[in-house]
Amino acid sequence: MMSTVISRWFHKIIVGVVLYGFSYGAIALEWPQEVQTKLGILVVYQPQPESLNGNVLQSRAAMSFEVKDQTDPVFGAFWFSARIDTTDDVTTVRNIQVTEVRWPSSTEEDQQTFTDTVSEALATTSFEISMERLSASLETAEQEKRSLDNIKNDAPEIIFSSTLSVLLSYDGEPQFREIENSPYERILNTPFAVARDTQSKKLYLSSGTYWYVAENPMGPWQVTLYPPEDLVSMVNTEEDEPAKSTANAPHIITSDVPTELISTDGSPNWQSLIDGKLLYVSNTETAWIRETTSGDMYLLLSGRWFKSKKQAGPWAFVRGDKLPESFKDIPPESDIGGLRVSVAGTDEANQAMLDAQIPQTAAIKRDEAKLEVEYDGEPEFEAVTGTSVSYAVNTSTQVLLINKVYYAVDNGVWFTSASAKGPWIVADDIPNEEIAKIPASSPVYNTTYVQVYDSTPEVVYVGYTPGYMWSYPYYGVPIYGTGWYYPPYWGRYYYPRPPTWGLHVGYNPWTGWNVGVSWSNGFYRAGVVWGGGYGYHRPYRCCGGYYGGGYRRPVVINTGNINIGNSISVGNRTKVSNRINSTNINGNRIGKQNNLYNRPATRDRLASPAVANKNLKKATYNKNRSNDVFADKHGNVARDNQGKWENRSDGKWNTAPATRDLSKPANINKPSNINKPSNISKPSTLPSTRPSTLPSSRPSNMPATMPSSRPSNMNNSINRSRPSGGFDHQSLNRSRQARQSGMAREGRGRVHR
Asked: Which of the chain's ends, N or C, has fewer CB atoms near its CB within 10 Å?
């Protein structure tokens, strides 16, 4: 009976937000790809990235040149700098600037001709690669893996309940505002529907299914079947089905400080795992584990682990890379297999870190992108400590004042104005060095993860990484929120700031971040709109209109569970997939519904592909070619022949040397016609005061003057020297493993010639 009621309630009014995640059916984009040149067909094999800084990719790739009137193709390797654009599950590689070429088996007189032809052809060509393959390939790149400083990891108040319960959370002391044309006033600073009768002073709380009554905002709350009819008409929708019995109504626990609630359906039911090395509680939504050797208990909250010997605490933070080794042995198919993404060093955690490197990008039309900023009275600004930046406090828009110029971020796009009230235009240049100094203790910290890449007279190319959505790589695992408490603004309106605690935020490797309220997301009445024109509370318009991941409107959601509440934060992939599919809700990669640029409200800003990538021709795929050719980091061309390496020499494939040959490679060329763009400076380095996330993605400095045509790219390695060395089995093995991993993530098997 209990499970039936939970299921019905959950399916009726479930609300939550998936911030970013992985799709179950990724797009498979095939390699190698072909480019037509004036001398013949250039075949480019899947790139092998070396670094990604913002949207600037540094990579190498193997190639073969099928020159007209020549019987055998000429194989080579080239290094390049390019920009990437991300749409759905596809990454477009464009503005390719060849920086170095090696032709191991071409004649000396042909080398420069081939090099110049390749450089010219690739400059006007774009390639497409799946996000799976790109992120897997980055696994072999030498990335600087520093974690954020100034992140707070103090444990919130942690409450345990052995009765199915919901946390009613207030953002500080409850604040009441009149509901116009009614005898009620509402509490503004909570995501729940809480109203008070101004005459009787009784308070009412609703989930749409159950109603509760109390004498005090802090409770105790008693379930009732007889709420005031006029209040019900304001809150309930046509889809709401009022409960006919109070027998299965969850208990209400109230808090006005940062709190997380651990609720179980009865006494904790401990289950053994890994031959008794670990125990876990099966009748809860929360990851609750005991390591049997030490007796320590662990909780996972907003991506952070906390441990204690007893429930009463104290609870101490434990980094994801400092957990007991037995955590890495949690079977992926087990009931808590999804937790592996929060254990540093697991495949799931590594993949999450790699995906955090890839920005979501868009080409924004200058003439279509509009912004209006509404303030509660005259604009009020507060200084960001330790910087020359100030931010507006009495608006739901993130508005910054820097050097007497105003900048605003809206859904991943920077705007600028000479006045705090506008008019606003799309910014094609922002003061990156000042913005990068904003610390995690500031509520506008997430704007440091929004970038302006380049521009033309028609469009501005922008992007953001998950930090804009308050998700950060931290010592090898994803965490949610900065841990800082940001006081809200009180005035005519209530402007909440993004919280870390109280939303029961959880992450799994397949759908990403999701929001709940400790037991059932079904109770989560986000952004209640009071009927009859009674007004509404206004959320912080950061990150697509979500208050820290969920205070505004019900946008995505359904989820699965271990046993109760249908949480997908702790289950395994099969269970999560089945529950998501059974409710017709798909997992979402960062490029789909959860890509801010693709939401209906902002889609009109996007430039068409014809405008965004004009003058570029797309490379094609020939199904008769195998994606089995690689370039090692020294420029040697190798073929994977049934798991054995062959190298290209003397115009044919030969068995590769069994050991690494340390002879210096020859025949390294640079395009004769390549020039560094004069109006684009080298990407700026990250200020020492703020370590980057994975990767060090501080935006580059923008041109002082806007070019009349689209800049080719930013290239900081045109004159770099290739390291000396011979056939490198180690780097080739890593590249092969990454390519296979990317294909596996697309749901495909390995294919040999």
From this structure: N
Distances in Å between the Cα of 151 and the Cα atoms of 317, 383, 487 are 12, 20, 17
Strand order through the sheet with 203-206: 176-178, 184-187, 193-197, 203-206, 211-214, 222-224
Nearest to 327 by CA among 348, 352, 351, 301: 348
Q: The dihedral of CA 716, 721, 723, 725: what is its sign? A: positive
Task: Give the predicted TM-score (pTM) of the model.
Answer: 0.69
CA-to-CA distance for 588 and 578, rounded, in angstroms?
15
Which amino acid does the sequence have at 518? S
Residue 311 tokens read as: 């429930």
Q: Cis peptide leading into 695, omega within 30 of 0?
A: yes
Q: Tell me the CB-side half-sphere exposure of residue 228, using CA atoms within 13 A.
A: 20
- List pLDDT tens digits, range 391-425: 999 998 999 999 999 999 999 999 999 999 999 99
Structural contact between residues 77 and 114, judged by C-beta atoms closer than 8 angstroms: no
What is the per-residue pLDDT across 470-501, written as a single tens digit (0 to 9) for each?
A: 888 899 998 989 999 998 888 777 788 888 88
pLDDT along the chain (753 residues), means of 10: 31 31 44 90 89 86 86 84 83 89 73 86 89 71 54 95 88 86 86 89 87 95 92 72 81 93 91 93 89 96 95 96 95 86 89 78 90 94 96 94 96 96 95 92 93 89 88 89 90 82 70 52 39 30 31 23 34 46 35 66 81 70 85 86 86 76 47 44 37 38 38 36 62 83 61 34
CA dist 599 and 609 (Å) reads: 17
Q: How many other CB atoms sit within 10 Å of the CB of residue 54?
A: 24
Backbone angles phi, psi at 675, to 5 degrees: -135, 140
What gap in Å lies between CA 389 and CA 398, rounded to an integer? 12
Strand partners, 107: none
The C-alpha atoms of residue 499 and residue 551 are separated, in whole angstroms, by 10
Coil/strand/helix, residue 168: strand
351-380 b/e with 16+ CB inside 10 Å = b? bbbbbbbbbbbbbbbbeebebebebbeebb
Contacts of 523 (CB under 8 A, 6+ apart): 13, 166, 192, 207, 250, 517
CA 542 centroid distance within chain = 15
Q: Where are the alpha helices (DSSP H) in 480-539?
A: none
Q: What is the residue whose two structure tokens read 């960062």?
A: 590
